[in-house]
Write a structure and sequence with these properties.
By secondary structure, the protein is mainly α.
Length: 180
C-alpha cells in the first residue's frame, strides 16, 4: 500500500486530525437540512410535470442515516456521479457531510468533493456569497479543523491526490488561514 511509504509524521497527523474532526463535529445533525440524495434532485433541470418538492421528499427518505458517523465507512455514500453533492447542499447539510468527507480524505489521501467547495472566492465573485453561506454554521473549532485539514492535504504527495498541493493551499489561503 502506498500510504505505508509515507513519513510517520504524516500518518500521525492523519490519526490526530480524525480524532479532532470527530470531537469538533460530534452532535452535528442534518435535521432540517438538505440530504445527500436530495442534493441530486435539486441539481436536476426543471421539466414539465416534475413535482420537485415530492421528488425531494422521496430522495430525502433514501438517506436513512441518523448520524454522519454512519457514513464514514459506508461504500454507498458519495458516488461521484456528476450531479448533486456539496454544491447543492444548504448550510445544515454542508456541516453534516463535511466531517465525513474530511475523514475519508484524510484516510485515503484523496479529495472527497471538498477542495473546490472549501475554496472561498474573493470579494466580488458570484459564488462567494453562496460559499460563505454554506460554511456559515461552522463554529470556530470546526473552522480550525477545516484549516488543519487543508494544510494536511497540502502536505500529501501528489501521487494519490487528484488536486495538486497548490489547490489545497489556494483553498486554505482563500478564507481558512484566519483559523490556523
Amino acid at each position: 500500500m502506498v500510504l505505508d511509504k509515507e513519513p510517520i509524521e504524516l500518518r500521525c497527523a492523519a490519526e490526530t486530525l480524525e480524532v479532532d474532526v470527530r470531537k469538533a463535529f460530534d452532535g452535528v445533525t442534518r435535521k432540517g437540512g438538505v440530504s445527500w440524495s436530495e442534493s441530486a434532485v435539486i441539481d436536476l433541470p426543471a421539466v414539465p410535470d416534475f413535482d420537485a418538492d415530492q421528488e425531494r421528499l422521496r430522495a430525502r427518505a433514501k438517506d436513512a442515516d441518523s448520524s454522519w458517523q454512519q457514513l464514514i465507512d459506508d461504500p454507498a455514500w458519495f458516488s461521484p456521479r456528476g450531479i448533486g453533492g456539496f454544491g447543492f447542499l444548504d448550510a445544515i447539510g454542508f456541516r453534516y457531510y463535511l466531517p465525513v468527507a474530511i475523514i475519508r480524505s484524510v484516510r485515503d489521501r484523496r479529495d472527497h468533493g471538498t477542495c473546490f467547495h472549501l475554496d472561498i472566492p474573493p470579494q466580488g465573485e458570484l459564488r462567494r456569497d453562496y460559499a460563505l453561506e454554506q460554511v456559515s454554521l461552522l463554529n470556530r473549532t470546526q473552522c480550525q479543523i477545516v484549516a488543519a485539514f487543508l494544510q494536511f492535504m497540502n502536505r500529501v504527495p501528489d501521487w494519490p491526490n487528484p488536486y495538486s498541493g497548490d489547490a489545497w493551499d489556494v483553498a486554505f489561503l482563500s478564507y481558512w488561514k484566519q483559523f490556523e
